[in-house]
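Archive entry. Fields below.
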Amino acid sequence: MTNTRGTIRVVLRELGYFFKGAALNIFSWEFLTVLIPLVALWELLPQLGVVPRTLIPPPSDVIVTAWDLFVHQGFIHDIINSMGKFFLGLGIAIVTAIPLGILMGWNIAIRKRTLSLFQLLAPIPPPAWVPITIILFGIGLPMQTFLIFIGAFYPILFNTYQAVKDTDSRYLASARMFGASEFTLIVRVYFWHALGALIMSVKTGVAMGLVMLVIAEMYGGRTGIGFVLNEAKDYFQIPKMMVCMITLGGIGWFLIEVLKFIELKLAVWKGGAR
Amino acid sequence: MVKQLLASTLVLVVALTACGSDTVGTSTSEGAPLTVGTGGGYLSATLYAADEALAAQGTPIDLQEFRSHADVGYALLSNTVDVGFVEAEKLAALAALDGFEQLTVAGKVTYPYGATVVVRKDLDVRLQELDGLVIAASAPTCKLLDRFAEDAERLGASLDHVTYEYLTFDAMLPALEAGVIDAAVIKGSYMSLALHEGHTVLYQSWDVEPGDECCPAIIDQAELVLLVQRDREDAAQPLLEALDATQKLSPDELRQAVVTSTTLSFDTLQGQPVPEFSRADDELVALFVEAAEDHDD
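PREDICTED_STRUCTURE:
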């Protein structure tokens, strides 16, 4: 009972730190001096007729549309649906790209057999995978998940591989001196050395995954932020498009804040570089 | 403090420059070829034929194919195309946006309405086997659905256990492709696309007159509307004349123009009605806006 209470207290305390840190990042004095004038200009220019209001709706119009979308049109279900696909695709990318990247960075034999293949495939722009993905998976969740996966996979793989490959040889030599096995080297030296770069690579993966989420939701299914965004685009509903764009931006920002927090907790030596 | 304010100002200037609107667009110069935007497909048959004719006359147009006719609407508003075809059903929404006043209606493309039932490519079913499947229709009471239901009953097919999904025509083919539905009752102009995607036409009747809430009579006015930048009306005249001239072409000549310009095959198009171009004016916009307002009420 005491343990449970203690755990809850720790979780709440950490959540508090997280939200405080995230809020401080966005509401910092420096950023507010940029954000507030930008939003004010965005509101004023269409209101004063300097830019066409129907083409560039001011934030007040976007807020009204957002209210309607969330309260009357069940937009939250679209967000949940999109996030389900997104985390599935990103999760698969993380659990495949990180071990593979570590193995490629650790072992030259594995590297020589795989690196050229990935270097050949990586430059293919993720949207170019759409037709072949539709042929392979049809249209639906597997195809959408694969597209998000392919968007996030390569940034994570290459950053992990590079970071592991660049591990300081003195750390390895020291560990070997103490009789560390290759497995111990991987989990105790390579992984921790690469952690900062690895989290950075997941941040890039999040951004690429969100891009691919919108593309994936253009095909098949009738739910999700990407679907709503595309439908709004096709019917010239610009405020609705903006709500979707801001939502995607907000999700991306939140996830990056989460990753920064994880980095701060795990890669403490990188804390000062935030 | 001064340093911080300077930094913020610099970032603001950069941000504003990055967000800088280009809505004025790049108006085409007088001597340049007419830029024409289209969403492509079978409905652009008359445009493809006119394009070939103009190229043969030595006055080619710059044909820009967009992913959808809605994208053509944005290109017209930003003045990056001189002329463009947009879907008639979206005309009212487009007309509500700033910049539409610089456009004028020059013509329309019509296509027989028709009731068509397409079945998903991986299903091999007959009319009598539709019962129990999921079929998309545009509304519970729709002339297309009524027509199909009447004919199905006459042919001894029961639809008692069909589950209906009500979707827009735009959403039906993607839903079919996704396997969300088994069949769809589409209007005629979507048939070539359905066939091109490999689905099967199970039923078809061109004997349908629009004129109810789901298929308003206004739809009979046009499938696509040709919009022209007001300051390029004179430059658009040769194109309009070439489009008029397509009325004299045989259906096979129009189908051949589509085959030449797209990946659609002649076999897919054979037997289907062909789209027709005719002149129209701004009154068409008023009709569509009125229809949209009635629908909203």
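CURATOR_NOTE: Residues 214 and 226 of chain A are 4 Å apart (CA to CA).
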